[in-house]
Amino acid sequence: MNDVLKEAAPPAPADDAAHLLVIDDDRRIRALLQRYLGEQGYRVTLAENVAEATACLKNFDFDLIILDVMMPGENGFDFAAELRAEASARAQVPILMLTARAETEDRIAGFEKGVDDFLGKPFEPRELLLRIASILRRAQPRSASLHVSHVHFGGFVFDLLRGELRRGDEMIRLTERERDMLRTLSEHAGETVTREALAGPGVAGNERTIDVQVNRLRQKIERDPANPSYLQTVRGAGYRLIVDR
Fold first, then answer.
1. Does the first or last residue of the chain, that is N or C, have fewer Cβ atoms within 10 Å of its Cβ?
2. Do 17 and 134 fall within a single domain?
3. Are 163 and 179 in contact (CB under 8 A)?
4. What residues are paired with 46 via a beta bridge?
């Protein structure tokens, strides 16, 4: 990481640059990320614990949260779960966990809490940039040139352009990963979509984590998630979304 940092202060980011919230109790990591990400044109706000992060979220809008797991007081997993449970716009801010705890079980636990991606410590700065760019890209609406703009299944309507899922007047909260998967499934409604096609970059493409994310999505759209009517498993191949015609 030291090799990529320069002595000169980074230039001020553009007013419309993505705003990142870095939450880490390690002062050195916070300083390194602030300088490096600032050099890449991002606006960066720092917090050393959950209490500071909560205060920041009340005062600023963020495009992405970079979150450590092990911190004094409340840990990153619990913070992510509480944030996702809120009935507010900030509940949908994407979360990238940057942590030394990157074993499969930890990643699955994180995805179950609503985390969008993981990167283990120590990390390569270039990979961090690519993951940030990928998450931010997924968070943006697709072009209006999409042939299908809405799909209907059961009582739900999914807007592919906005990435919004509604049931009547109720907005169903989706993580960025769930939104991205549902958009892919909707674009290929009725067709089998492989796990590889549903997978995000890096560790998120692990087969088990894709299954976990699909099961989380089923909890939101199926009357009986154990016997899904809409998001169906195609054994040995992947998944398909059954929509109304």
1. C
2. yes
3. yes
4. 22
- pLDDT at position 10: 53
Q: Which residues contact 107 (CB under 8 A, 6 or more apart)?
A: 118, 203, 206, 209
DSSP annotation of 91:
G
| pLDDT < 50 stretches in the chain | 2-8, 141-146, 202-205
Q: What is the domain count for the chain?
A: 2
pLDDT score for 21: 95
Among 118, 139, 160, where does a domain finish?
139
pTM of the model: 0.57
- Range of the structural domain that residue 101 is part of: 2-139
Q: Do 77 and 97 belong to one domain?
A: yes
Q: What is the pLDDT of residue 145?
A: 37
Burial per residue of 169-202, b for 16 or more beta-carbon CB atoms within 10 angstroms, e otherwise: eeebbbbbbbbbbbbbbbbebeeebebeebbbee
